[in-house]
Write a structure and sequence with these properties.
The chain has a six-stranded antiparallel sheet, covered by helices on one side. Strands 6-5-8 form a three-stranded antiparallel sheet, with no helix packed on it. The protein has two helices and nine strands; from the N terminus they run E-H-E-H-E-E-E-E-E-E-E. The protein has 189 residues and is mainly beta. The radius of gyration is 15 Å and the shape is globular. The longest helix has 15 residues.
């Protein structure tokens, strides 16, 4: 599959090998239930000014977003640190709503993003409703790995990896709601 590549204004010199971890039942049940009930009620914006600051100004929206409450953002960071055994500094954390009909392969690596997580919160379960990860073959980004959408599933990966929401590949075009976050790994020196 040939896909679009978002051109980055800043070239990142990092390896793009896969380092993807998946954890189901990521958020504790009471906290998940609270997020699940309120996530479709929020007002979502297409304004990506904070998100796009390190990866160039994007003309196309991958998702619509809303800031996550600080206590939820901190909870997600601490869960990532514990489960994925990394010390992390938060750069960005948002609730997202995606309903997309075309692929948009991109990476978010930069000075303020070495690792990312998406936590699927609410939507129809399905292989083609999650996230696709891409490799370059003969200069073209090709879909290599599917991670299906399952509520309360976290997908954690190193930021230079190209990825895209997979809803474009699914016949069901209903919305999906998630939490996304970007981190810088803090290395012990």
């Amino acid at each position: 599959l040939k896909v679009y590549i978002l051109l980055q204004k800043k070239k990142v010199n990092m390896k793009t090998e896969f380092d993807i971890s998946i954890k189901d039942n990521f958020i504790e049940p009471d906290i998940f239930k609270s997020i699940y009930e309120k996530i479709p009620l929020y007002h979502y914006s297409g304004d990506l000014h904070r998100y796009a600051a390190d990866v160039g100004k994007r003309e196309h929206h991958l998702f619509f977003s809303r800031d996550v409450e600080p206590e939820i953002a901190d909870y997600i960071r601490k869960r990532c640190e514990k489960i994925f055994n990394k010390k992390l500094k938060l750069h960005y954390c948002s609730y997202t709503m995606v309903q997309r009909s075309e692929p948009m392969s991109h990476h978010d690596a930069g000075d303020k993003c070495t690792h990312q997580v998406i936590v699927y919160i609410r939507g129809d379960v399905g292989l083609h409703r999650g996230t696709g990860f891409y490799t370059e073959v003969n200069g073209v980004q090709e879909l290599n790995t599917h991670i299906g959408f399952n509520e309360n599933r976290a997908v954690f990966w190193n930021a230079p990896v190209y990825h895209s929401p997979l809803l474009w590949y699914d016949e069901n075009k209903s919305k999906r709601y998630s939490i996304i976050a970007q981190y810088v790994e803090i290395k012990n020196e």
